[in-house]
Amino acid sequence: MAEAQQKIDRVLLKISGEALAPEQGVAGIDPHSANFIAKRVKEVFDLGIDVGIVIGGGNLWRGRDQMANGMDRANADYIGMLATIMNALTLMDALEAIGVVTRVQTSIEMQAVAEPYIRRRAIRHMEKNRVVIFGGGTGNPYFSTDTAAALRAMEIGADVLIKATKVDGVYDKDPKVHADAVKFSELTYLDAISRRLEVMDSTALTLCMDNEMPIMVLNLWEDDVLRRALLGEKVGTLVSG
Predict the structure, then answer these.
(1) What CATH number should be reported for the domain holding residue 119?
(2) Number of structural domains, the chain?
(3) What are the start-end ranges of the H helices in the chain?
(4) What is the pTM assigned to this prediction?
(5) Measured torsion, CA atoms of residues 72, 115, 20, 28, in degrees rounded to the nearest 10
(6) What is the pLDDT of residues 101-123, one digit of tens each?
């Protein structure tokens, strides 16, 4: 689709917290994974593209599991927001270790460790060649980090929202379970919503659809994939109008 061929100057990268996990099913932060992700981000940064990042907290906290044990939804979500800030600080450290100047902004104020989220300041950081990591989700319970990523992408004027996963695109069913799963190279927002494909949650998808924000889903662990995608090569799945 046309969006993929346009010159890309600014991206919002959505990374799941599980990308930082030591291994599947184990809670915590693996510094080697953080270093790997930082190198991938630097590949984009070195193209002269502004980079904003929203990272999840699922490697440290699974609110759904706690709610199943009786925890209040709002409390579970607030704890999850704090987990995303821990991940954001970890990724900032990994980026700065390889020479990428980085700022963390959070929707929940904690000025001893990060800046409060201010849209114009975030854009100014990018104009000064700094990567900005947005922690704390939207700052409100009942909203996912997918929705936070869609919101921040719009606010900073990103050209595309990239959802980095461990799967090389969107399939009609789980390719890890079903050998006959079919991959989509392109999808419309309405298709993704109506077919309940696990691109992003419905709130995030609707927000992107209403504001014509293209979503690119790709496998962050595939060699050179971010750079290739942003240079126009067809990789992963493009979700657009």
Answers:
(1) 3.40.1160.10
(2) 1
(3) 2-5, 31-45, 63-68, 73-97, 119-127, 145-156, 189-194, 202-210, 225-230
(4) 0.92
(5) -50
(6) 999 999 999 999 999 999 999 99
